[in-house]
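Help wanted!
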Amino acid sequence: MSTKHIVIIGGGIIGCTSAYYITHHPTFTSNNAVVTILEASSVAGGASGKAGGLVAKWAYPKELVDVTFAEHERLAREHNGKERWGFRYTGCGQWTGRGEDVVRDAGEMTSKTSLEKKEGLVSGKNTARRNTGLPDDLDWVKEDLTDAYEPMAGDGETAQVHPYQFTTSMCELAQEKGAKLVIGKASAINYSGSGASRSVSGVEYVNEAGSKEVIPASTVIVAAGPWTSTLLPSVPISGTRAHSITVRPTRPVSAYALFTEITLPRSSFRTSLGSPEIYARPNNEVYACSPGDGEPLPSSTKEVKVDQQVCEALFKQISAISSELRGEVTASQACYLPNVNSGPRGCPIVGEVDNAKDLIIAAGHTCWVSLSCTLRHCCGNL
Ligand SMILES: Cc1cc2nc3c(=O)[nH]c(=O)nc-3n(C[C@H](O)[C@H](O)[C@H](O)COP(=O)(O)OP(=O)(O)OC[C@H]3O[C@@H](n4cnc5c(N)ncnc54)[C@H](O)[C@@H]3O)c2cc1C
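Answered by r_m:
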């Protein structure tokens, strides 16, 4: 049997879970299939390492969520995801209230693009208000600043992973089964044949030393996130920059993910409303992210510009509602959310493209990534 060469372009969550599922498929043997992950900078160096890591039954698109929530639970059981990538169930709600004066000024964003994560919620479901509704164990936001807390889903319907740990674990687990990781930036996909028999033959890339090389390929999966259209211009995917920070709280805090609407005092904030998402993580870390902005996509994850003023403003906003969140800032970062520019909201582009046999795209997962959707395509070809 001839050897199949499967090249996955992109070492984000989609590329790494693609490699995981292919190498863990019952029909996979590393003797007749070589799987290579080709990553331009570093595994999980983009959104897949800097996202919030929320996993929810109420996410969208529903067709993928119905499969992937249970799959996250299974992966965590099988590979000790609790320890390895911080898998756990979490409370989740919409917090509305006021911020208090904490520290003086930092720059704030002027143009904001919602990441639209809450769009998956069914209107009216689980949104009944009870006085302020603040749960007893959500004791790290100030009760006297709370106007309302609305739980966004029932028990067991929202979970979380540490996205960097999850993505790098998927890469390692694929490597344990024979996948190769190559650091290099894909510059072109080569083809052979024409018409109905046109198929991929290789991937050209620039290695870390700056030289051009080619990996032979019988299947190419393009999972380059917001950079996908730089390789496949006909694919309508773009990127939205979003900033985030991680904070070591002043004491361990309970497991909640909060979508906030904070009315900010004009005396010390440039904007009157802040809407950071705040996720407590198990490793004594709290993650917070801001809405997106219009900064153009740079050439790689390494070139992403971080506007420190936006990160400082984010810290100031979360500090304004919680003394516990006034701890040490452990990371100030930015990354690009992959968006599909047309078609149904929140639907990634998955499947064969560009009239080439065995050229598969898996990108555009917006603010809800759904593991890899390429399993059927790739394993069917083994
Ligand atoms: C602020 C923020 C918060 C988020 N929170 C959540 C959340 O809580 N839950 C959730 O499910 N989703 C969340 N998301 C969405 C999620 O992070 C993304 O949908 C997901 O990470 C996209 O993964 P990806 O592998 O497609 O892209 P990426 O993570 O961008 O990975 C693409 C990879 O391809 C590489 N690459 C690009 N071009 C080339 C090339 N030419 N050659 C080789 N490699 C290349 C890049 O270096 C990169 O490593 C969030 C996103 C943002 C921005």
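OP: Thanks! One thing I noticed: The CA atoms of residues 264 and 272 lie 5 Å apart.
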